[in-house]
């Protein structure tokens, strides 16, 4: 999967999604992946086609039920760096 834009979503658009944005930027740097935009937003502001990859917690994943499965990274634990690393690696290798 070619990824140019990643959108992190949460209920308020400032807490969890901002933390995810930062963690994803760190992961991208560690993988030498450049020229990928990472943004955060509320679930109500996110629409299909806004990004190549959407990252969210499991409890909020229902808002993206109409999004293609391959474009979603759904996390069980937002603070588990290993889970984020594994799921991002899998998404980029699709």
Task: Describe what this molecule looks like in 3D.
The chain is of the alpha/beta class. 29% of the residues lie in helices and 22% in strands. The chain contains two helices and four strands; from the N terminus they run βαβββα. A four-stranded parallel β-sheet has the order 2-1-3-4, with helices on one face. The chain is globular. The N and C termini lie close together (5 Å). The mean pLDDT is 91.
Throw out a few tags for this protein.
single chain, 94 residues, alpha/beta, 2 helices, 4 strands, globular
Strand order of the largest sheet: 2-1-3-4
How many individual β-strands? Answer: 4
Reported for the largest beta sheet, the result is: 4 strands, parallel
Estimate the mean pLDDT confidence: 91
Q: Can you tell me the residue ranges where pLDDT is under 50 for at least 5 consecutive residues? A: none
Strand-and-helix sequence, N→C?
A: EHEEEH
- Proportion of β residues? 15-25%
H/I helix tally = 2
């Amino acid at each position: 999967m070619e990824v140019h834009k990643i959108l992190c979503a949460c209920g308020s658009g400032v807490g969890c999604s901002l933390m995810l944005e930062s963690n994803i930027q760190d992961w991208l740097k560690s993988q030498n992946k450049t020229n990928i935009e990472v943004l955060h937003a509320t679930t109500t502001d996110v629409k299909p086609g806004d990004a190549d990859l959407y990252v969210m917690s499991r409890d909020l994943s229902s808002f993206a039920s109409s999004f293609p499965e391959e474009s979603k990274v759904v996390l069980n634990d937002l603070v588990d760096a290993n889970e984020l690393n594994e799921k991002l690696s899998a998404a980029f290798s699709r």
